[in-house]
Amino acid sequence: MTETAPRPTLEAVAARAGVSRATVSRVVNGGDGVREPLVERVRRAVEELGYVPNQAARSLVTRRHDAVAVVIAEPETRVFADPFFALQLRGISKELTAHDNQLVLLLTEGRDDHARVARYLAGGHVDGALVFSLHLDDPLPGLIRGAGIPTVFGGRPGWHDGDEGVVYVDSDNRGGAREAVRHLAGLGRTRIAHITGPLDQTSAADRLQGFRDVRGDADPRLVVESDFTPGGGERAMRELLARRPDVDAVFAANDLAASGALRVLREQGRRVPEDVAVVGFDDMLPVAEGTDPQLTTVRQDIEEMGRIMARLLLRRLDPSGADDPPAGVVLPTTLVCRASA
Which of 237, 263, 265, 301 has a CB 3.0–4.6 Å from the CB of 270, allowing a cystine? Predict the structure, then answer.
C-alpha cells in the first residue's frame, strides 16, 4: 500500500501566504473586501500548495453550486442514438466548462421521471437548468417553474402561457423549411411531399408551416406525420409511395428521417435525385455526408444553440450582470446543397 499525502488545508494556505484563515476563505470563495496584494499572495500560495477548495463550504458562502442541470425530455435510447443531442450537449459543455461549471444530465424515460427531476431541481443541487426536446403536453415546464430555479429552454416555447419571462433559443425552422421547399420547386418538382417530425413539438410544427407557406395547395396525401428517427422516415416514405406513387420530391423534417426515406427509395428502385429529390433538415455531418447520395439539407448550428443556451443561463445567474438576457434568440438557417437535390 502507498500512503497519499494529506490534502492542503485552508490553514496551510494562510500560513504560506502570511494572512488569516478568514482572508484566505474570502479569496478562494469569491468574497470582497481583500486588498489586491493580499489576493495575489493567497492565489500564489493556493497554486504552490495545490489547494482545492471544499465545494460544500464554498456553496455555503456563495450560495452557488457551480452546477447546471441539462434536462432532455426524451428516453435515453433516443438521446444516445440521435447525434442532434450530442451536438447540443457539446456546445453546452464547452460553455459551462469555460466558466468552471459542471453539467448534470437528467433524462425523462417516462411520466414517472418528471416528479423525480422536479424534486432534484428543487433540492438545491444545481444553480439553474437547460431544458430541451419538450412536447406540448409535457408537465416539465410547470414543475420546473415550481422548483424556482433560473431556466433556459431549447426550442420555441409553444406550450407556455404568455409568460414573457421565458428565455429560449431556437432556429428559424419555418424559414428554413420554406427555403428547402422553394429549392425543390426551383428544380421543377411539382409533387413535393413532406415527412413531418412529431407535431407535438414546435420545431416540427414550424417546419410543417414553412412547407405550407410554399405549397399551401398541396394534396393532403403528400404530408405524412412521422418522427425524427430513421425508422420513422422509412415508414413515412413507404406510406407516401403507396398514396402517391408519382411523388417527385420529399422534404423531410430532419436528416435522420431523410436517411430512412432514402433507404426506401433505393429499395424500391427510385433514383435520387433523378426520380425523387430529397432534402433534410439539420445538416448533421455524420448523417448528411454518410447517405447515398449525400444529403441536401437545411443547416442549423446545433452546437452554437447549446452554447448560447448555456451563455444565457450563466448571464441570469451572474449577480453582477446589468442586463437581463433576451427572452428569445432565433438563429438563422442556410440551405446546404449536395447530391440528393
Answer: 265
Question: Residue 326's closest CA among 148, 162, 165, 95?
Answer: 165
Which H or E run contains 129?
strand 128-132
CA angle in degrees (0–180, nearest 5) for 11-16-21: 30
Model confidence, pTM: 0.81
Query: Which of 116, 10, 19 is CA-nearest to residue 71?
Result: 116
Burial per residue of 117-142, b for 16 or more beta-carbon CB atoms within 10 angstroms, e otherwise: bbebbeeeebbbbbbbbbbeebbbbe
Residues 68, 126: contact at Cβ < 8 Å? yes
Are 154 and 211 in contact, with CB atoms under 8 Å apart?
A: no
For residue range 141-181, list pLDDT tens digits in order: 888 888 888 999 999 887 655 556 789 999 999 999 999 99
Contact 24, 13 (CB under 8 A): yes
- Which among 50, 51, 21, 47 is positioned nearest to 34, based on CA atoms? 21
Residue 75, CA distances (Å) to 111, 112, 150 in order: 11, 12, 24
Distance (Å, whole) CA 245 – CA 257: 19
